[in-house]
Amino acid sequence: MVVGNVGMNVPRDIFYEKEAEVLVSRSYGPGRYDRNYEERGIDYPIYVRWTERRNMEAFLELVRQKRIDLDPLITHTFALDDAPEAYNLINTGKERYIGVLLQYSPNGTGASGTVTHLPGSGKRKRSAGIRTIGCIGAGVHALSSLYPHLPGLPVNLAGLATATGLSAHSVAKKYGFSYCTTDYQKILDDPDVDAVMIATRNDLHAPMAIDALHAGKDVFVEKPLATDIDELRKVVEAWNESGQRLMVGFNRRYSPLARRMKEFFGNRSTPVVLHYRVNAGQIPPEHWVHDDEQGGGMLISECCHFIDFMQFITGARPVQVYARAIEPTGTLQKYDNFQATLTFDDGSLGTVTYTTLGDPSYPKETVEVFCDNAVGRITDFRDLELRRDGKASRERRWLAQDKGFAGELLAFAKGEVPDFAGSVSTTLATFLAWESIDTGTPREIDIGTVGL
């Protein structure tokens, strides 16, 4: 039995003569690295008895029976509330360690207690718009781009719901939520919460938004609003029935440079020609964003940003889309390299070029706008160049890229939510771009087909 990543200089003759076998241990057992098993809960047939789960259960049972002694391996112990210090110890490597134990308080409420109140947090604030927000999800995007702006908003922070209690408690304590939970329904049932922020995986956006609308909450939901047309119809139906406000996290329209560009073209007399070029890096094929059910692919997950930006600049709705994509080969995923051309109801034209084939040293996002003898260009939301009649101006923010995250959250807190029909148009356009690639034909964009 070979355990771990070690050399395998196997003497063939000896194994051949004795008909011996070499087995390589696969970490926790069958099921490891299998998305269907680990993430979707699809178990193996009965003849695969010692799966990853059963191996773990057997190990825990041996620990419970005290037949395995882990005490000699424990070098550090931290209270659960001090978990960030434990991770800091591991990440910095300042001290030698073998086992780091996170210890629950002996006075804790036990596994049945899903809500933990945090004394001294959630200070009351006054707001003319939304008063109290509850948040769902604490993934990388939420922690890096959204939650750091929450303490500066004129709102009260109520509950935070995440999949695990450890992450919920740590994040809630850091940003000043009044309580944390592993059950997002607790937030929807909270009468003090009048708005919910949803920052989970793509496939959970629509179901949670629908639940929040039915609970009578205003909703901020990260993009995409839905991962297919049927989901979009259900969201629209819930929005129509509830009368609540719903805002999708299309942040780029709130970038200061985007606002400056819109002002520059504010008094135009002709349609606009736009080109949004995205030089994106490759995301590993096994990443959940490529999963049709969980992520919807890069076209659904990312292209919505760029279509919304075009709507913002033009002030017009997309009415037709025609898209083509490079066929997936090797590491190239379906819909990872595509061009989509959109026609807007004011006659403007917009093209999105999204590719993973470029050099990462080149700017990631470049937007060009042409209209009325004028040109505008934004590069990575750090550099804005405007030209008209031979005169040029430039605004650079090399040390402070601003994609509009703070601006969008402030707008939501004030109740200044963009027209919902625009968000539906953007989302529907991405689905129809997908259809256009598959059929090779242009697709008409009509939000009436989804209930608006």
Automatic annotation (TrEMBL):
<dbReference type="InterPro" id="IPR036291">
    <property type="entry name" value="NAD(P)-bd_dom_sf"/>
</dbReference>
<keyword id="KW-0560">Oxidoreductase</keyword>
<feature type="domain" description="GFO/IDH/MocA-like oxidoreductase">
    <location>
        <begin position="275"/>
        <end position="373"/>
    </location>
</feature>
<protein>
    <submittedName>
        <fullName>Alcohol dehydrogenase</fullName>
        <ecNumber>1.1.1.-</ecNumber>
    </submittedName>
</protein>
<dbReference type="InterPro" id="IPR000683">
    <property type="entry name" value="Gfo/Idh/MocA-like_OxRdtase_N"/>
</dbReference>
<dbReference type="Pfam" id="PF01408">
    <property type="entry name" value="GFO_IDH_MocA"/>
</dbReference>
<feature type="domain" description="Gfo/Idh/MocA-like oxidoreductase N-terminal">
    <location>
        <begin position="134"/>
        <end position="250"/>
    </location>
</feature>
<dbReference type="Pfam" id="PF22725">
    <property type="entry name" value="GFO_IDH_MocA_C3"/>
</dbReference>
<dbReference type="InterPro" id="IPR051450">
    <property type="entry name" value="Gfo/Idh/MocA_Oxidoreductases"/>
</dbReference>
<dbReference type="InterPro" id="IPR055170">
    <property type="entry name" value="GFO_IDH_MocA-like_dom"/>
</dbReference>
<dbReference type="GO" id="GO:0016491">
    <property type="term" value="F:oxidoreductase activity"/>
</dbReference>
<dbReference type="GO" id="GO:0000166">
    <property type="term" value="F:nucleotide binding"/>
</dbReference>
